[in-house]
Design goal:
110 residues; Alpha-Beta Plaits; alpha+beta; single chain; three-stranded antiparallel sheet; 3 helices
Length: 110
């Protein structure tokens, strides 16, 4: 990984962006948005994430964050991993999701 993308001091403010696999428009449904928001709240309440601003788009997110208590890189890793697992599970279980087969097919090949 490039040196310019590493967290050097968790207490400093960082502008972080990350995208879905293949820039798939996952966050077009309220259900999936709620999963992302719940993951953010969990990290704030239990992992020491300081969240100053955030913006969730249909296929990516922007955050302005820091952390007094923990390793910010670890918090981001856990946030992304947990959110991805929960969104995948929600897509698999959502019979109303018209794009379910297509999205799962793309995720499997990523």
């Amino acid at each position: 990984m490039s040196e310019k993308y590493k967290v050097r001091d968790s207490q400093q403010l960082y502008f972080v962006s990350f995208a879905t696999v293949n820039w798939i428009d996952v966050f077009t449904r309220r259900l999936y948005n709620d999963i992302f928001v719940a993951s953010l709240r969990y990290c704030q309440q239990h992992k020491g994430l300081e969240l100053y601003a955030w913006c969730l788009m249909t296929n990516h997110a922007h955050l302005i964050i820091s952390s007094e208590a923990e390793n910010l890189s670890g918090i981001l890793r856990d946030l992304k991993r947990h959110t991805a697992k929960e969104v995948l599970r929600a897509i698999e279980e959502n019979a109303q999701e018209s794009r379910r087969e297509w999205m799962l097919w793309l995720f499997e090949r990523a």
